[in-house]
Amino acid sequence: MSYRPLASLGRCVPLLRAGLIAGIILAAVAYPIVAAAGIGAKVGAEFSEHKADLLRTTLPAETSYVYAADGKTLLTMFYEEYRQYTKIEDIAPSMQQAMVAAEDSRFYQHRGVDPKGVLRAFVANSQSGGVSQGASTITMQYVRMALRDSATTPQEVQEATAQTSIRKVREMRLALDVEKQMSKEDILERYLNSAYFGHRAYGIYAAAQIFFSKKPKDLTPVESATLAGLVKSPSEYDPVTSDQQEAIGRRNYVLERMGQLGYLSPEAAARASTEPLRIDQSDPRNDCASIPQRHNSLGFACDYLKNWWSAQPAFGDNRLERIDKLRRGGYRIVLSIDPRIQEAAEKNIDAKGTTGSPFAHGVVVAEPGTGRVKAMAVNRTYSLDTSENGPTSNPEADPKVKANFPNTVAPLLGGGNLPGYQAGSTFKMFPMLAALDSGMPLSTAFDAPHRYRSEVYDGWAPSNASGAMTGRQTMWSGFGKSVNTYFVWLEEKVGADRAVRLAEQLGLRWRTDVDKAQASPEKVKKWGAFTLGVSDATPLELANAYAAIAADGRYCEAIPVLSITNRDGTPATYRTPAGLEREVAKPRCRQVVDAGAARAATDAARCPTGDRPARGSCGGWSTADSVRGTVGRPVAGKTGTTDSTRAAWFVGYTPELAAASFIADPDNPFNAVGDGQSQKPIDAVAKTLRDALKGQPTRQFTPPPDRMVG
Q1: pLDDT of 76-100, one tens digit each?
Q2: Residue boundaries of the structural domains of the chain
Q3: Where's the Penicillin-binding protein transpeptidase domain (predicted)?
């Protein structure tokens, strides 16, 4: 097919005023790929002004920011496209002018489609025999970017960016409609916030930050011309990695156009063209691994945030949708981690894990009554770089497999997909609480033998850790001394199924095949060993479960945030099954057990710590009697060790805070930590609570009611 430019031009000019038909013919002339026949019908059927209205209301993807609890300290960001939406009044006038000069000098004269630009492109393309020059206005380019950003399917993305005449006609039609609904200032603002400048810089805020480490309002005319010049071809004119002469040449072209358009005087434009290219590049942090080194330990809390976020229906129907929302939604997220409590937790864990020990030692602190996580510390460095890690301690693993220390991003403290660690006698809390909630009093007594044969559990015969535990025990003394045989008997009375289901209501989840099978309806009633803590649990789960007891039986889901706000500053919300709208970051609490039963459990739980219960006797000794003296205020809790001390635990709480600490080998659960290290979790919790509550008024536990004493 041949083309006769002058004859075609003569026929086309009268039609430039004819709305959509003009757009179709202009596209067919400027881009001689297909004839106009048929395109008009397709465009007319598929597009209407409601699409332009959608483009008017659709905002581009925006970076989400994560702050420390002070709401000021930026920890990291999440983004696919690094962008922060910036109002036109916060963009330097020189930047606005430079973009018009570079991309669409007649922007303020045309109505979305520029006939002169189309004719100019037509002549250039006819002379070159191809498409050497485009006719896209800023409005048309904005339409293309907005269609891409609002696309919900791969096909829509392809249609928005495909190099076809149909796409060009769509852009023209929509550009005309958009200009009916939006002012030139609004269109330019949207364009400046959507354009890609290279180096992951989407929008003018990101470009100003990445190339010049400043805000858009502070850009100079020379810097503005440099950035405006990038949009045409970010890689070709890249001032960082490409030949700077190309970037300088493009910048100077923009400066010259600014002079011709009256934005700069000819002298100022000429002077600016002689300036060297000065780049002050910055690399915006992204995701948890880029948290500053001074806040490195918060990488584990950040990772927990991601896992928590991916489970929230408020942000999408599945994990992929929710993470995409995090990376594109422009949220402002404030973590619940308290800097003072976090510092206390970090100070009181064994740091050997960062220098060569396979044993992970960590602590998690939760707030009773809210479920907010106040500290997450473990003796590991949060890092993706495991190249210097030694071989794993697991003898069954491939020798090439790296250990989890000193560097790891594994969720060792909970909130991820790891099962956790066997928690030993910390689980005695669940049958005791279930018994109390069923009406059995604290004074419920049993002559506990050294070894107890259970007929309920098919002849299973566990024994106590010490002969000194033999004798008549109550809930106070049985819990304080951690008498196995007493609690197997107590679990028989209340039912293992009731204890297990209560633990589930307090947030515990079964992740291993063995635990899932034992917790199944078919087997749960025979799970006698549950009370001895044979199931895996995480510090996050146990800290929050015990926090519910401190809150008089009111369980609150664990939550890592103080606030989440949308890009417009409003709180992020979700709709409950009952149709109520609630803020995502607000505590989600429910009464799980009777308040009197929870207070009774706390009274018994004061016995292991060396504290004095309000209503009963601990029987003379306890498993962690140093805790009360260290904390210096009323405190409850429970120790836990597994067979051969493969793992050691302590969970403790005051009315204000609950903390769980463990020490174990995450790579090899059969690698025993040994009795010599069982004191470390006890000390970590006691000292963390002491330091976290220093200077605060002492609060007392509420004594249990008479009906729970017996």
Answers
A1: 999 999 999 999 999 999 999 999 9
A2: 80-274, 421-553+592-708
A3: 362-667
